[in-house]
């Protein structure tokens, strides 16, 4: 094949591809798979990316109404999401504290039962005995 014929064929095929691409774009197909980009699941993904402020940008509204609704949704949704995120953080902290106390209890006692704090009670009784002996009272029996 001569070079001029090859260039002519390449231009023709490129022009046909450009026309097909333009037609698909006007029909609303913006993904590589040939499907419309707005489905129910893609709408959920878009809503989550707006609220979490991730903003991937692969889905976006093209109409003015869609853009305005997105702004209102973001103004309400982002603060609510931050409140929920704070609550999840508190819950996560409680879980970690519980796990840490369980691990410490298991490490120090060798079992999962609570550690009995009888040493403090014994120290108090010894202190009371010493006070009673110093004051002359010998009636406390243990």
UniProtKB/TrEMBL annotation:
The Potassium channel domain is annotated at 35-93
Location comes to: Membrane
SUPFAM superfamilies the UniProt entry points to:
Voltage-gated potassium channels
What protein does this entry describe?
A: Potassium channel domain-containing protein
Record membrane topology? Multi-pass membrane protein
The source organism is: Aromia moschata
Q: Which Gene3D superfamilies match?
A: 1.10.287.70
Task: Write down any Gene Ontology CC term.
Answer: plasma membrane
Q: Which InterPro entries does the record match to this protein? A: 2pore_dom_K_chnl (IPR003280), K_chnl_dom (IPR013099)
Taxonomic classification: Eukaryota, Metazoa, Ecdysozoa, Arthropoda, Hexapoda
Tell me which Gene Ontology terms the entry assigns under biological process.
Answer: stabilization of membrane potential
- One MF term in the entry's GO annotations: potassium ion leak channel activity
- List residues traversing the bilayer: 38-56, 68-88
Record keywords: Ion transport included?
yes
Keyword tags: Ion channel, Ion transport, Membrane, Transmembrane, Transmembrane helix, Transport
